[in-house]
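chain below, 222 aa
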Amino acid sequence: MTKPLVLRSVLAAAMLSIAAACSGGSAPAPQPSEHARYHATMLSRPIPMPSAVLTDSRGRPFDLRARTDGYVTLVLFGYTNCPDVCPVHLANLTAALRQAGNIPRNQLRVLFITTDPARDTPARLRQWMSHFDHTFIGLTGPKAVLDSLQREMQLPVAVKEASNSAGDYAVGHAAQVLVFTRDDRAHLAYPFGTKQQDWVDDLPRLLKETWGTPGGSSSQQS
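prediction:
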């Protein structure tokens, strides 16, 4: 069974190059971005933010579209028992935000959406998310809704693997972080392996990105 990671272990793991053992459903290796200034893959077509109401780690409803409108929103699907991909992504983001102290945090949302709702209760999400940045938002919901969200975001739906003799199991899930800019569309995907410095470089630019606005930097529309 993968035991919960404490922050020290998570931050140490973030410095290592680890195989994405829990990301069996992840997308193919990213190609060089058309937007060369970002350390990310440019999506061939922007993905609109889906409409759904989830539950946050305090047990409160979270209207996905309404609560992210006008923000730069980073979305990661995963689960709290994940041994590598999820804690590494979140730890790198935590460290990057501390390093880039001039980022207007009130304009940024980081959402961790569980792919294991049977175990990731709001209380469990709250406890696990406390190891990272206090502004990160953990979300859960009915499995059917979570599966639909992954499809709408053009991600492979997470797969629960066979349980071992103790009843523990892993969940294969997509390993990328989708970035929705202020036009409420995802234009970029950051793969597992994105470094802290990559986030430090890119986050200030993402917060100034003008996709979908008059005179914006991209003419792609969904």
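The CA atoms of residues 38 and 202 lie 6 Å apart. Residues 1-21, 23-34, 218-222 have pLDDT under 50 and may be disordered.
thats it, cya
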